[in-house]
Amino acid sequence: MGAYRLDQGGAIDRSKPLSFTFDGQSVQGFAGDTVASALLASNIRIVARSFKYHRPRGLWGHGSEEPNALIDVSGPVSSSPNNRATVVDAVDGLKVRSVNNDPTAKNDRFSYLDRFSRFIPAAFYYKTFIFPDWHLYEPNIREMAGLGKIDRDWEKTGLATQRNMHPDVLVVGMGPAGLKAALEAAEAGKRVIIADEKSGAGGALSHRDHGAEIDGKPAHEWVASTVERLKELGATLLTNTTAFGIYDHGVAGLDQRHGDGRPDTLWRVYAKEIVLATGAIERPLPFANNDLPGIMSADAGLAYLRRHGVVAGRDIVIATNNSSALEVAEALAAAGTRVLLIDSRADAPTPTASGIRMLAGRRVVQAVGKLEVTGVVLDDGSHIACDAVLASGGWTPTIHLYGQSRGKLRWDETLQTFVPGTEIPNLKVVGAANGTFPLSATDTYSISPIWPKPGQKGRVWIDFQNDVTAKDVELAARENFTSVEHLKRYTTLGMATDQGKTSNLNGLALMATITGRTIPEVGTTTYRPPFTPVPIASFAGKRSGNFFNPVRRLPLENVHRADGAVFWDYGGWLRPAFFGKGDADAEIAREVRQARETVALFDGSTLGKIEVIGPQAAEFLDFMFYNTVSTLKPGKCRYCFILTETGIVYDDGVLVRLADDHFVVSCSSSHVAGVHSMLEDWRQDRFDRKKVYIHNATANYATLTVTGPRSRDLLSTIAFDAPLDDATLPHMSLVHGSYRGDPVRITRVSFTGDRSYEITIRADRAEALWKELKQRGRAFDAVLMGSEALLVMRAEKGYIIVGKDTDGLTRPADMGLHGPLKNKKVEFLGKRSLMMDDAQREDRKEYVGLEVADGGGMLAAGAHGVEWIGGKHRSIGYVTSSYMSPTLNRPIALGLIERGISRQGEIIDVRHMGEVRKARIVGPSAFDPEGGRLNA
Question: What is the DSSP string of 220-261?
C-alpha cells in the first residue's frame, strides 16, 4: 500500500537513473525528478516535522507553495539549508536531510511535544515564560527554534551574479496566459523578458487539460511552438526563476536558480510594463487531522502523476468542493488506481470515466491514522479506508506581486476568493491570477465553499508549517485579537517560510465566522517580498570583501612601505600606523617624542577635501554647520561641527575659505562619504542647485603635514614661492604657492598642538615633494610619523575624534561649545533639537579629561565611571580614549562623564572587568593647555 511509480509516463528520463540519500536512506529516481517526486515514488511519507509540535508531515504541494517538506541539501551542489523539496532537482549523489528533527523525520525524539499541545497553544510563550525570568528559558528555546542547519564546512563556490535589465515588458509566468502576453508583446516589436519558477514552460498545462487545444493546436504543441517563436523574436526566457518582489518604481526582483552548484543570479528588472500570469494555488480542506502524511493537494497529486509518473496511492480518496478535482480523479483512474471522489456539491456531475466511485453531497470531517493517513470519516459517520487523500478546497489567485504593487483586492463570491480589484498603471494581471481558472472556454468552474467552523471536533490544521489550528484562531478571537494583522502575529498564521500561501484564506474565513463578519470585511494581511525565500548571497552578489568595502589606499603607499611603515586599517583607509621594525609601543613613543622636540612628517591625504562653490555657498554652509561660516574671511580657516537633524555631533573638521564663493570642507577621514552625502542631500532639498555646487576632490589631492617646533624651518628650505612668516600666515590661515610649477595650498592648522602646516598638492605630484621633505628634514632630525603617534598627540592636547570621544548622544554643549547656539541668528541643521528638554538636561555626559589618581597604570578604554547608591553601582559615563603619554611620561585619558565640566577636580571611581580604579576629572588638555606651542 502507498505511493508508487508507473512503469511508463511522465516527463522524466528513465534512461538516466540516479540515487541520493534522505536522512541517510538511499532513494532512487530519474533525471527530471525533484527530490519530492523521488521521495513520493519511494513511498517515503514522513518528510518533515512541524515547527512547534514536531508532528509528522508529508508532501502537500508540488511547487513553491509547499509548506511542509523543507530540506537541507549538500553533496554535488553547494550546501544550502531550508529548501523546498518540491523545487529542488534530484541529483545523483545528493545528500538530503529533513529539518527540525533529531535524528530523522521518521524518528524524531522531540515528537513528544505534540502530547503537550493543549498546554502550549497560540501565544503561550507570551504568558508562560514570564516568571521568574525569561532569560532562564531563552537558551533552551532558542536551541530548539529554527529549521535547517548551516553546514559549518560550507565552502563558497563563487560570488552570485547580479544583472540589471530594462525590457519593455516583463511577463511573470509561462503558463498559457503568460506565453500569450509575451508573444503579443514580442510580435509588436517590444523587448520581452518572461520568467517562471518552474523548470519549463507551460504552467498548469504541463499536468492539466491534456486534451485542450489552443489556437487549433494541442496544448503541448502550442506551448513548444510559442517558446520557439519567442526565442526567434529575441525574447529572454528565464526558467527556474522566481519573481520574488516588486519594489518602488516598479522594479522587479528575480532569483534564478542554476542547480549546478553555482550561486543563484539576481535580476533587477526595470520594465515599462509588467504582466502577472502567476496562476493560482489550491487550498486545503478543513477537517480533523488534515495534516497527516499521505494527505496532499489534489493538483499536486495530478502533477506528480503526469510530470513524474508517480501515483500518490493505490486506494485514493479525492475530497473536494469544486469542479477542478474531476480531472484528477479521471487521470488517476486511467492510471489504474482505485479512486473515490467525495464532492461536497450535491449537484456535482457524475464522472463519465470508468473506475471512479463518487459520493456527492458528502464531505470528509476527519482523517484517520497515526503516522500517516489510513482512512477518512465522512459527515454521515461512515468510515472509508484509503492510503492517500487528495484534497481540493478551491483556488486562490497568486496575487502577492500584485499586492506588493499596492493593488487592492476584491472578493469574488462566485469564485470564493480574492481577485485583483483595482487597475495599476503599467501592470496587468491575466489568467488564473486574475480569477480565470478554467483553461477551455467550455469548462465552467464551480465551487461550494467549505470553510473552517468554530467548535469543529478534533484538531483542524490551518497553517501546516507553524502548527496553527482552528482552535488557535478561536483563542485569538476570545482574547480580542480579531484584526487580521493581530491574528497573524498572535497565532503566527501565515508567518512561516511559505507566508501562508495555503493557509491564509482559511484563517480569514474562520475569523469572519467567529466575529460575524464577511471575509472581505476581515480583509487580508500586507503582502511583502520576497514571495519565496531568496539566498542572502543573491542579494550580496559580489559585494563581499574588497568588493563590499574596498580598501582605500594612499597615493604614497609604496613610498611609505619602502620607508618601513606598518599599515593598519583606519576607517577603511590603509595607513601607516608607525614606522620601524621594533616594538609597536616603543616605535610610537619614539615618534611622539621626536615630533615634540624637532619636526615630524605625516601623510594626511585621507582628510576630506570637499569643495563647495557658488553664490549661495556661504549661506548653505551657515545652514550645514553649527558654527557661523559666512563671517569667515577668504584665506582663513575655522574649526566647525556638523550636526545631524537630532542635534548630534556627526563630524568635526576645518573649514577653509578660498574666496567669497569657494570653500573647502576638510572633514575627518572616515566621514568623507557621509559628509558629502549630507551636503548633497540638503543642497538638493533646500537650496538653488544652480547657486551651490559640491565637488568631492579628496582623491584628487594629497595632503602632507609638517608638524613640530622646527616645522617652519624645514618648510623655509623648500621653494614654495609663498610667504611663511607668522604675520602673513598665522595659525588658522592659508597661502597659495607652487612647487616645481604645480600649485600648492599651505594651510596652518594643527591636530598635534604644535606648530603645523598642511601642504595640499596634486596626488600624482606628491611623491617628489615628500621625498624632498624627507631629504631636507634630515638636517632638522625629522621623523616619519604614523597615525598612532598622531592619535596620542591629539589626546595629549584634548582634541576629539568624533565617534571615539563622542557617541550617538553627544551634542556640542557636551563638548563645552555653547556659543553658536546662543549667538547664531540664522537657522542651521539640528538647531531645533538643541532646544529640546533632553538637550538641556543637567545630567548630560560631558567631555572631560581623566587623570589617574591611584598611582596605577593606564585606565582601560571603555571603563565606566560609577557612583554607588545603596551598595549598587550606576554608570555615570565612560573612558573614551586612554594612552601612556610619552611627552608627559604618565597615563592620560579622555571620557564622557555626567556633569563632567562642572566637576573638575573631583575624584570618581572607574570600574572595568570587576576592578575599581580612582580617577580625577580634569580639563581635556593635558599638554600645553594655553596653546603656546602653536606659535613656538
Answer: HHHHHHHHHHHHHTT-EEESSEEEEEE-GGGEEEEEE--SSS
Higher model confidence: residue 573 or residue 131? 573
The Cα-based distances of 122 to 146, 265, 444 in angstroms read 17, 38, 40
Q: Are 882 and 859 spatial neighbours (Cβ–Cβ below 8 Å)?
A: yes
One-letter amino acid of 204? A
Q: Reduced to 3 states, what is the DSSP secondary structure of residue 432?
A: helix
Contact 821, 643 (CB under 8 A): no
**DSSP string of 311-334, one letter each residue:** ES-SEEEEEESBTTHHHHHHHHHH
For the chain, how far is it from start to end, CA to CA, in angstroms? 98
Dihedral sign, Cα of residue 562, residue 563, residue 566, residue 569: negative
Do residues 253 and 163 make contact, with C-beta atoms less than 8 angstroms apart? no
Q: How far apart (Å, rounded) are the C-alpha atoms in residues 497 and 125?
A: 20
Query: Which residues are paired to 412 by β-bridges?
Result: 417
d(CA 372, CA 384): 15
496-524 confidence digits (pLDDT tens): 888 899 999 999 999 999 999 999 999 99
The answer to whether 180 and 205 are in contact (CB under 8 A) is no
Calculate the CA dihedral of residues 424, 430, 434, 440 and round it to 10 degrees. Answer: 160
Cα 106 to Cα 103: distance, rounded to the nearest angstrom? 9
Confidence of residue 438 (pLDDT cuts 50, 70, 90): low
Q: Say how far apart CA 247 and CA 243 lie, in whole Å.
A: 11
The pLDDT of 821-836, averaged and rounded, is: 93
3-class DSSP state of 394: coil
Strand residues in 714-755 grouped as ranges (E): 733-739, 742-748
Query: In the beta sheet, which residues pair with residue 317?
Result: 340, 389
Contacts for 927 with CB less than 8 Å, ≥ 6 apart: 753, 796, 797, 885, 887, 888
Query: Do 666 and 748 form a contact (C-beta atoms < 8 A)?
Result: no
Contacts of 778 (CB under 8 A, 6+ apart): none
Contacts of 662 (CB under 8 A, 6+ apart): 611, 612, 613, 617
DSSP designation for 39: H
Q: For residue 238, give the nearest of 337, 184, 171, 181 by alpha carbon.
A: 171
Closest CA to 198 of 129, 117, 259: 259
> Are the beta carbons of 585 and 593 closer than 8 angstroms?
no
